Amino acid sequence: MRLLLRFASFAALTAAVLAGTVDSIQSVAASEPVLTPLAEGIALLGSDALNWVQSLQRTDAGPAIWLTALHWVFMQPAFAVFLVIALLLWMAGYKKKPAAGRFAA
């Protein structure tokens, strides 16, 4: 299970680096900071991904607090969202070293 979590963390970190690279290239070209929201990044993946995002944002998807939080996450920069996801997955897959040491009974 830890291996799967670490791999998912690596994939999210890779997506964050790619999104950050695209944003930095666009920022240099525009001579001003450009941060792509997560929703726009998902929309670029295709119509299936866009339909998935729109299905999550429908009013019958859950309580209003869930929709508000989801809308807030989709408006954040894509690289930041992927970095947070990578950190959370890495923390979930992290193996703590024993407190007693290597040769404890």
Q: What key attributes describe this structure?
A:
2 domains, 105 residues, mainly alpha
Question: Radius of gyration, Cα only, in angstroms?
Answer: 18 Å
Strand fraction = under 5%
Biggest sheet features: none
Judged by helices, strands and strand pairing, the structural class is: mainly alpha
Terminus-to-terminus distance: 27 Å
Low-confidence stretches: none
Signal peptide: 1-19
Transmembrane segments: 69-92
Keywords: Membrane, Signal, Transmembrane, Transmembrane helix
Describe the structure.
With 105 residues, the chain is mostly helical. The protein has two domains: 1-34 and 78-94; 37-76, no CATH class. It has five helices and no strands. It is extended. The mean pLDDT is 87. Keywords: Membrane, Signal, Transmembrane, Transmembrane helix. The chain crosses the membrane at residues 69-92. Residues 1-19 form the signal peptide.
Brief characterization of the structure:
With 105 residues, the protein is mainly alpha-helical. The protein is 69% helix and 0% strand.
Topology summary:
Elements: H1 2-30, H2 38-43, H3 47-56, H4 64-75, H5 78-92
Helix pairs in contact: 1-5
